[in-house]
Amino acid sequence: MDLWFTPSENSQVHLESLSFEGFVEFDIATKTQIKQGQWGDYVRGAKYALSKQFNLKYGINGVLQGSLPVGGISSSAAVLIAYVMAFAKANGISLKPFEVVLIASEAEREYIGLNNGLLDQACIALGQKNSLLFLRL
């Protein structure tokens, strides 16, 4: 999953996808983000979960390209990790890798509505090439 972005100079989010039709635009200052049943719900979910802990002032402008199969293992976790990290970077928020895991997982459970654990997010954020990842929760 590749996300190329720049922080916006205001609270606006504007994203396009090379893998999905349409674009996503919203203002992060709006408290409630309404799910629309499309790929933009994942960026709204990342904003939802991150804004529960931090005051977000700046949105992002970007382009998303998916290299994972749609509906494949970790595709939703990968894109949420990318969005959480992008919003954090745009707003000067420093997160430890496991904090990113927890925020992305919360977005997936509470906003997207998927009932899953932390393994996909942890493998993406904490995994290293040619190694095993052991989680003790």
Automatic annotation (TrEMBL):
What are its E.C. numbers? 2.7.1.6
Q: Where is the GHMP kinase N-terminal domain?
A: 42-127
Gene Ontology biological process: galactose metabolic process
For this protein, what is any one GO molecular function term? galactokinase activity
Coiled-coil residues: none
InterPro entries membership: GHMP_kinase_N_dom (IPR006204), Ribosomal_Su5_D2-typ_SF (IPR020568), Ribsml_uS5_D2-typ_fold_subgr (IPR014721)
- Name the keywords, alphabetized: ATP-binding, Kinase, Nucleotide-binding, Transferase
Record field: transmembrane = none
* GO-annotated cellular components: cytosol
Into which family does the record put it?
Answer: Belongs to the GHMP kinase family. GalK subfamily.
| Name used for this protein in its record | Putative galactokinase
Q: Which organism is it from?
A: Bacteroides caccae
